[in-house]
Amino acid sequence: MVVIMFFIHPEHRSLSFWGKAHPKKPVLHLGSHGAAVIELQKLLLRWQLFSDYPESTCQVDRATVLTGHFDETVRMAVESFQAAMFLVPNGIVDPLTWQVLYAGMPIHMPVLRLGSSGAAVKVLQRSLLDTGDALYSTSVDGVFSSATEWAVRHFQRRASLPVDGVFGLTNWCTLSRALAALTQDLLPSIRGIDLSEVWQVLSEQICNPSLERAILKAVGKLDGSARYYYNRVDLNRDSRLEIVVHVVSPCLKGVGGYPILVFQPDDAGYQLVSDLGLGVAPVIVTEQMTGGWSDLVILSRNETGSDYWFARFDGTRYIGGSSGGQSFTVPRGGAIAGTAFIADACNPYSGIPFST
Fold first, then answer.
1. What angle do CA 201, 205, 209 make, to 5 degrees?
2. What is the pLDDT of residues 120-162, one digit of tens each?
3. Contact call for residues 184 and 347 (beta carbons, < 8 A)
4. Are 231 and 342 in contact, with CB atoms under 8 Å apart?
5. What is the DSSP letter of 18?
6. Are the C-beta atoms of residues 155 and 202 closer than 8 Å to each other?
7. Model's pTM, two decimal places?
8. 337, 160, 157: which is closest to 231 by C-alpha?
9. Contact, 195 vs 339, CB < 8 A?
10. pLDDT per position as a tens digit, 239-274
């Protein structure tokens, strides 16, 4: 398990921005056991921190995860969570860590703007350097200068947030998820294919019942463990946003991954444009177009290895996926430029649960 490598010195715990601690939960650490540890394991499972555990939510597998013993695996998961949430990554579940675990977001971080200063600004500056939004010449000096504001606006624009230069809770949440995504091998290097010009965008987090109905119509009945991820993107340059969807459920998993679908809005809600077959998010929307629609690149994983393939529009639908009848493999040593949507660590424990 990879721990996100940015740290806040323990002496900063006393600063006011660490917020009010949760008073009712016990402090847990390596060697702890009991009901409180089970509760901790449930929360870590919810926030997809057990990456080495089985990809299933069936009761048998959950029983193997919810042991009630604070072992090395739990400690590493706690440290990863703390680092991702801008807490001291010490593996100790103190009252503040409990509070942030229940919230699932860095609720203790302050609103920052031009003129702000202090330890939290340093955290922000280091993080924006890690995500590539700040210029390498930007100083990590704890002063929210015009250079820091420029980096914040760059991040906000790339993350589809209001571009106002003010860094509040929504920004901290998005930054946390973006940093977590950096630790995942979401776009592995294969056959010398150059992916250096691909930006990554995290999926949207708002439940969309109309979209859910369209998904269920396309894939059939799903069990209660199913989750979905989606992003809006204009694939055919008509100023109307299509939706790229990745459905994750143990009952749908195939050799190559999980279903990837493309929908278009209509008067009744959403109409299925293409079932791209099985693949692994993120879905790369390239700068190249075929038939008036952007070419897509999907990563497929199977028993013999992984590979990238194009999905191209034939005037009616995308072809080239595992259900398209044709295969367009990205050439060896080729370069891909574009935006990778749904750049999340997708698994059956995260994503948006179906409400319909």
1. 125
2. 999 999 889 887 788 877 789 999 999 999 999 988 887 778 9
3. no
4. yes
5. G
6. no
7. 0.58
8. 160
9. no
10. 889 999 999 887 766 656 788 999 999 888 899 999
Reduced to 3 states (helix: H, G, I; strand: E, B; else coil), residue 172 is: helix
Read off the pLDDT band of 89 (50, 70, 90).
confident
Query: Angle CA(283)–CA(344)–CA(123) in degrees, nearest 5?
Result: 130
CA distances for 94 relative to 110, 270, 316, angstroms: 20, 45, 56
Q: Is the dihedral of CA 266, 295, 200, 247 positive or negative?
A: positive
Residue 224 phi/psi, 5-degree rounding, is -70, -15
What separation, in Å, do the N-terminal and C-terminal C-alpha atoms of the chain show?
34
Q: Is 322 helix (H, G, I), strand (E, B) or coil?
A: coil
Question: Residue 329 has which token pair?
Answer: 């493999």
DSSP 38-101: HHHHHHHHHTT--TTS-S--SHHHHHHH--SB--HHHHHHHHHHHHHTTS--SS-B-HHHHHHH
Residue 181 corresponds to which tokens in the numbers above? 């995504």
What pLDDT is recorded for position 134?
A: 85
Cα–Cα distance for residue pair 177/336, rounded to 1 Å: 24
Backbone phi, psi, residue 205, to 5°: -115, 5
